[in-house]
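Because discrete structure vocabularies remain unfamiliar, we reproduce here a specimen of the format, pairing a chain with its fold in token form:
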Amino acid sequence: MPSNRDYLIFTPDDVDLSRSPLRRGIDVDTYVLGAFNPGMTRLPSGNLLLMVRVAEALRDPVAGDMVHAIRWTADGYVLDAWPLDAVDMADPRQFALKASRHRMLALTSLSWLLPVELDPEGRRVVDVHYDHAIEPAATWQDYGVEDARISRIDGRWYMTTCSVSAERHSTTLHTSDDGLNYRLEGIILDHQNKDMLFFEGKPQGRFLALTRPLGEVYFAYPPGSDYVGGPSINLASSPDALHWKPVEAPGIRARKGSTSAMKVGGGTPPVLTDKGWLAIWHGVESRETVGVYRSFWALFDRDDATRLIAIDDATPLIEADPALTAPIAHQMYLPTPVVFSTGIVDAGDDWLIASGEADLACRMTRIAKGEFG
């Protein structure tokens, strides 16, 4: 039986690949590498919706002296072949092209989004909506759609996703009037940004979001600074959710002394509490290829949501738990512990937080509201 605090709610074995969108074109054996990083919201019925990232991978990506990547086209899905001696396959999720002047990746899996409906307590799967699955729909998504985050604002649902392609690595927006049927609005950030999260509300009457742009070069803070250079969580505002302007005030930056200062990024959409806007974010500790991912929390001022007022980057709020994945340990492929929080809903005296556990399954965690601040 699941514990009161932590349990897995959806795993790779729960996905029916006979209903996968990849069946339109890929006539080879595939498997679910992971069903993880679920966006989460509450539907008008009171039930919860998880928008689960399904990473569908080639069972045998290598054939002879070639390795294959999956790619969407307007006519269906295809396999691209690359010479095996021209790539580095150290990371199990992808391969890198050795001869490129830039860091150049291709994927042996392709991600699509599967809506999974839960009961109001988040304890039981009610339905799996394959007919509402979200897959690539344009050339700027031809390597997949990843890591949904959902915010309900003024009775409408806004879902950001990361769209992956050779053309660009962009943030895209879907909207919905009922929380289940989503429309693709297009690209809203035209640069590599894995973690754009809308505040669940309109602070000072405008849309506000956390962002996390990435780059190849970062500049050092002065030697006496409390901060470490590298990826940081920034903010941006918008009048319409489509056109975004960066906020000049800094957001969350990696700090010296934190075990998870290699990289920081957004986790759950910020929600309004009595103490301020609560954001769950992730920090990464450098270890092996992938690193160790943990979830932490921060509060932004309720009246000026661009002002950070409290942060805990010392004691993880959520850490990976090998006991949760023990029953499916044979499916594990990451060398380090990873938990990646992606959704939050009000559950009375608690917050219910949805996370990806080990890039493998969907985890639910109940945390008392009194733990913050």
In short: Residues 63 and 84 are 9 Å apart (CA to CA). The first strand starts at residue 6 and ends at 10. The chain has one domain: 6-371.
